[in-house]
């Protein structure tokens, strides 16, 4: 069991960048995967990116962010980062990190523990 805390959100113009952080208290290695999700007002929560907590696994990205967003972690698996470049207004949402497994996917049912979110707003 872990507790997750997101930070790094803010307001930027189209084309700008933000770096989100997900810090975990507890043993992150109890879970196979950490993922980033986002939810805009009136929309369902969608997966953005995911990474295995241990070395050797791959990463997964939503098609809408490939080439613009990068998920990474430190050598201990904590914290996990989401570098967001070339931001667009459609990226505006509350961003959440989550821990779960055993599959490192963008499907929210595989995640057990969630942070409270950090707001990202991109203006045109």
Mean pLDDT: 94
Uncertain residue ranges: none
| Number of strand elements | 11
Tell me, briefly, the overall form: globular
In helices, the fraction of residues equals: under 10%
Distance between the termini: 40 Å
User: What is the C-alpha radius of gyration, as a whole number of Å?
Assistant: 13 Å
Portion in strands: over 45%
The SSE string, one letter per element, is EEEEEEEEEEE
The largest pleated sheet is described as:
7 strands, mixed
Query: Which structural class do you get from the secondary structure elements?
Result: mainly beta
The number of helical runs is 0
Q: Could you characterize what this model shows?
A:
With 124 residues, the protein is mostly beta strands. Helix content is 0%, strand content 50%. It is built from no helices and 11 strands. It has strands at residues 3-7, 10-13, 18-25, 33-39, 46-52, 59-61, 69-73, 80-84, 93-100, 111-114, 118-123. Strands 2, 4, 5, 6, 9, 10 and 11 form a 7-stranded mixed β-sheet that branches. The radius of gyration is 13 Å and the shape is globular. The termini are far apart. The model has no long low-confidence stretch (mean pLDDT 94).
């Amino acid at each position: 069991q872990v507790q997750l805390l997101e930070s790094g959100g803010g307001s930027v113009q189209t084309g700008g960048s933000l770096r989100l952080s997900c810090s975990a208290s507890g043993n992150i290695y109890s879970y196979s995967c950490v993922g980033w999700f986002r939810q805009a007002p009136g929309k369902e929560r969608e997966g953005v990116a995911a990474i295995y907590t241990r070395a050797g696994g791959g990463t997964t990205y939503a098609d809408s962010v490939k080439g613009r967003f990068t998920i990474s972690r430190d050598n201990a698996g904590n914290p996990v980062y989401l570098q967001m470049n070339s931001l667009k207004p459609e990226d505006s949402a509350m961003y959440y990190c989550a821990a779960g497994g055993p599959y490192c996917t963008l499907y929210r049912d595989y995640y057990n523990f969630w942070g409270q979110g950090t707001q990202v707003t991109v203006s045109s």
